[in-house]
Amino acid sequence: MKNMMIAWALSAALAMTPSAWAHTDEYFESVEAPHGGQLRMTGPFHLELVAKGGDLTVYVTDHADTKISVDGGLAKAAIETSSTRTQVHLHPVGDNMLKGSGVFSLTPETVIIVFMKLPNHDAHSARFMPLKPKSAFTEKPKGGTSPTDDEPHHHHHPPKH
Known about the structure:
Layout: H1 2-15, H2 25-29, E1 38-42, E2 45-52, E3 55-61, E4 74-80, E5 85-92, E6 97-101, E7 111-117, E8 123-128
Antiparallel strand pairs: 1-2, 2-3, 3-6, 4-5, 4-7, 5-6, 7-8
């Protein structure tokens, strides 16, 4: 009985941790990214990928949108289209920025998987489709309300600009 109570208490505590409040890709599609890229969550981080003309930039913040230092970090991006696979190494270039460049083209079906290992943190990865059109699910109707306003949903402040 005592073990069951402890297990229940631990389960309840875990249910209230921030990972239980994880943002979905649909949530991130509904907010504007600070640098015009695509947002994803992985572990304790928010990643924003900006992909333009052979250049990739990843901005790393925490769940409060505070910049996370990427000094000493290692990262790479795997870029997959229907016919090619390219790898781009990303290097720290400022507070919370990782950058790299390569020869690749982007289509709405292009998938970019970013793998990142920062000092004193576990390795994490995130999947992006930077040119994928926003889905009808995430677009607000003309009335200005979300299609899920009456349903329970995750709450998060908009990213800082």
